[in-house]
Amino acid sequence: MTESAKTGTPTASEVVENRSFFGHPRGLGTLFGVEMWERFSYYGLRPLLILFMTAALLDGGYGFDRTTAGAIVGIYGACVYLASLPGGWVADRWLGLQRSIWYGGIIIALGHLSIGLSAIFKQPAFFLGLVLIVIGTGLLKPNISAIVGDLYPGGGARRDAGFSIYYMGINTGAFLGQIVTGYLGERVGWHIGFGAAGIGMVCGLITFKIFAQRTLGPIGTDVAVPPAEQQKAKKIALSVLGAIIIAVALVGSGVVPFNPVAVAAYSTAGIISIVILYFAYLFVLGGLSPDEKKRIVVIGVLFLAAATFWSAFEQAPTSLNLFARDFTDRVVFGFEMPATWFQSINSFFVIAFAPVFAALWVWLGKRGISPSSPAKFTAGLFMCGVAFYVMLLASNKVIAGGGGSIVKVSVWWLTGSYLLQTLGELSLSPVGLSSMTKLAPRRYVGQMMGVWFMASAVGNLIGGLVGGNIDPEKLELMPVLFYRTAMSLFVATGIMALLIIPLRNMMKSSEVTDH
Ligand code: GLN
After folding, report:
1. Superfamily of domain 23-509 in the CATH hierarchy
2. Across the chain, which distance is largest between two alpha carbons, in Å?
3. Which amino acid residue places its CA nearest to atom 3 of ligand 1?
């Protein structure tokens, strides 16, 4: 009997050699399940936020104006991703990946509980809940993504395929969350919807508790820095947490004023500065070898490409949402679909196409013609550009048909655009996750995942700021927005295409020391 059979905890090699989850390690199934529930709760809550905050007091909402509520949602979305950087750091230097996921999940569940209890404790409980979700997601999201990479020490096409399957879990959760909690929140009661999102996160915690030890074993339990450093990191993390609590209390009690619209506008510059400073710090004080520095440069370029991509893609809840509501003929078989249902088209297509992409990467890999990640990014940017070009055509159709009155276009315009965006997303997002685990020096893998999610933070803010400018009263602005979005994506496609070969050369060293 082996040691692992006695304790029920597999060894690291047993974990990575296992093939019982669709040909992938069983641990991937665990991560799939936990992240599915976490996204169920995240995407389940997100569309309700703006509806709830802008709903009149009589309808149980807060009666906030749209700009303020929109800015709050933008800041929340950005902060959720922003928190990935400290979250990754805490995992690398103190808690390790597995414990960060566990504690992150608990904090998220407490956040949802607090939002649910805002039925009794009003706004302080609501905003405290959002802050807790930000902190918890920062701990969970980058680290659960990093641990997926650890299941494939051989890297290569199999790891990309593993990330595509994992990405399906993300979107299964997003799809169900949007449908279930959206319905409950809107039709039954706001707080029932919030509560359902919280129950989703609790299911994720239960999944982790039951399966983590026996399917992940020791993977993601180690911390690559010495104990003294870990103690230092612990002190820093707890002090920062204390500072956050004080800041939240000051804002919450009205001692420090908070203007959401101004904060949203300044945050974009703030985030980009943080990332630049972080890269500068790594180069100067990170103790990196020349090879590692080259790979960090590649990460920097992928970051910029991803930020451009997400700035278009994250217009889904803003400009594309408005387009669905105001300019799309949503009647199908005599039934008018709610505009928010369009939000789940993307998740649906991801679920449908992720296996195709996973198989495609393996198929190409077997024939020795795996496209490099910069090449896949180029394709992703291009497809998203075409998606927004489709929206440009659709918006021109709205205007051309007009003559004063608004013409509503067929649902196929948005559906087609979302399909192209999804194909782009599948060429970029799971590939980006996989590349971070491949390119980052081992001791920085959690943090690099944090850097990756920083691109989503920028995207959420820019997508929120430009998407919020769509005004049904000023129709002519709409094609301008879609034209600019498409053009930015095409310019980024051109630049990435030129960089494919140099980046591939800089990445070569990572193929050798792939981890
Ligand atoms: N939909 C994906 C997720 O939730 C990616 C979102 C993003 O990074 N902007 O993980």
Report:
1. MFS general substrate transporter like domains (1.20.1250.20)
2. 80
3. 170
